[in-house]
């Protein structure tokens, strides 16, 4: 279930005609939407104790790619990023935290580029993190058309 | 007066009265409550939303909710229609810088970029570098109430909106 749970939101983030959240329920969303704008993807689930971390890697990823990542946290954790500014040369770093409980999990989302490394860092024992990471693309990306 | 809100509705309502943008993504819906009883109660001054266009070579500081204290966690969502840089200052984690990637237009498609998190916030600033397109920015922020406190929730009610 985790697969469809994450894919559907990934899909729906790209659509521009969402009338009702229930329309995106699970795999039906996959079937009815023909342009997903995702070239490669990765889904992970992990439980980390405080200060524990996991590096996130993606197949075929280089820092010029469009990275799209969504993660869900029960506990306390942040996404640590290191990349380059819009000039393509100046280093920038970031920590994007999410916090929540099983009743209302925390959610972090990032749509970015120029990113060199990323990892999940837990800030509390027993933190559960689920994430969907993707290499995304614009509609005119030749690779996307080739694989359509 | 209190506002009762579910997170996915909170995110969607960040669109406000602005009708030209696509509806906000529904990602938080699937990741959060699917039960109508999990409705957060947000009090006045603890949330805010708006939208604006930020020109190239311009900074824009996102206003925080009027009664927000940086001792508490703030759930924040920013959406942009073009590339911009977001600088977030967290009193505990320090300064973070992120680029939001987005496209618009018939060739590349309308794909807004999103940045979302929950953390203590001192300030959030958006910069559009020289030579970049001016993005349309919309945002929704709310202070995360004490999730262990029953008074932070309105249970058993599907109706959303302003309740006296």
Could you give the topology of this structure?
The complex is a heterodimer of chains A (148) and B (164).
Chain A: H1 2-12, H2 28-32, E1 38-48, E2 53-55, E3 66-84, E4 91-100, E5 106-112, E6 115-122, E7 127-136, H3 142-147
Antiparallel strand pairs in A: 1-7, 2-6, 3-4, 3-5, 3-6, 3-7
Chain B: E1 2-5, H1 7-13, H2 27-31, E2 39-43, E3 47-53, E4 58-61, E5 73-80, E6 84-90, E7 94-100, E8 113-120, E9 123-128, E10 136-143, E11 153-154, E12 161-163
Antiparallel strand pairs in B: 1-2, 1-12, 2-11, 3-10, 4-9, 5-8, 5-10, 6-7, 6-9
Structural class computed from helices and strand pairing of chain B:
mainly beta
Order of helices and strands of chain B: EHHEEEEEEEEEEE
Helix content of chain B: under 10%
**What is the averaged pLDDT score of chain B?**
74
Largest sheet of chain A: 7 strands, antiparallel
Note the run of SSEs of chain A as H and E.
HHEEEEEEEH
Structural classification of chain A: mainly beta
Spans where pLDDT lies below 50 across 5 or more residues of chain B: 1-37, 156-164
| Main β-sheet description of chain B | 4 strands, antiparallel
Total number of strands of chain A: 7
Mean pLDDT level of chain A: 76
Q: State the helicity of chain A in percent bands.
A: 10-25%
Count of separate DSSP helical elements of chain B: 2
Q: Are there runs of chain A of 5+ residues with pLDDT below 50, and where? A: 1-35
Per DSSP E runs of 2 or more residues, the count of β-strands of chain B stands at 12
């Amino acid at each position: 279930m985790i697969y469809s749970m994450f894919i559907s939101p990934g899909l729906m983030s790209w659509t521009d005609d969402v009338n009702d959240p229930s329309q995106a329920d699970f795999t039906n969303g996959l079937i009815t939407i023909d342009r997903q704008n995702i070239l490669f993807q990765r889904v992970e689930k992990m439980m980390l104790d405080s200060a524990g971390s996991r590096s996130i890697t993606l197949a075929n990823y280089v820092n010029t790619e469009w990275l799209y990542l969504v993660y869900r946290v029960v506990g306390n954790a942040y996404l640590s990023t290191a990349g380059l500014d819009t000039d393509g040369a100046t280093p920038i770093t970031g920590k994007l935290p999410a916090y929540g409980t099983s009743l209302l999990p925390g959610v972090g989302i990032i749509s970015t580029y120029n990113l060199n490394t990323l990892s999940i860092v837990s800030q509390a024992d027993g933190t559960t993190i689920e994430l969907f990471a993707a290499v995304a693309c614009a509609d005119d990306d030749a690779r996307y058309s080739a694989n359509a | 007066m209190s506002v009762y809100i579910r997170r996915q509705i909170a995110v969607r309502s960040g669109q406000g009265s602005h009708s030209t943008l696509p509806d906000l993504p529904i990602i938080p819906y699937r990741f959060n409550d699917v039960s109508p009883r999990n409705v957060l109660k947000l009090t006045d001054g603890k949330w805010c939303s708006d939208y604006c266009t930020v020109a190239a070579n311009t900074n824009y500081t996102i206003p925080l909710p009027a009664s927000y204290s940086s001792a508490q966690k703030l759930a924040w969502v920013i959406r942009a229609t073009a590339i911009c840089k977001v600088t977030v200052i967290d009193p505990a984690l320090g300064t973070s810088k992120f680029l939001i990637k987005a496209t618009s237009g018939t060739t590349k498609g309308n794909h807004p970029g999103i940045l979302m998190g929950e953390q203590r916030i001192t300030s959030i600033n958006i910069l559009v570098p020289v030579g970049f397109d001016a993005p349309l920015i919309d945002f929704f922020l709310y202070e995360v109430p004490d999730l262990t406190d029953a008074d932070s929730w309105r249970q058993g009610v599907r109706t959303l909106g302003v309740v006296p």
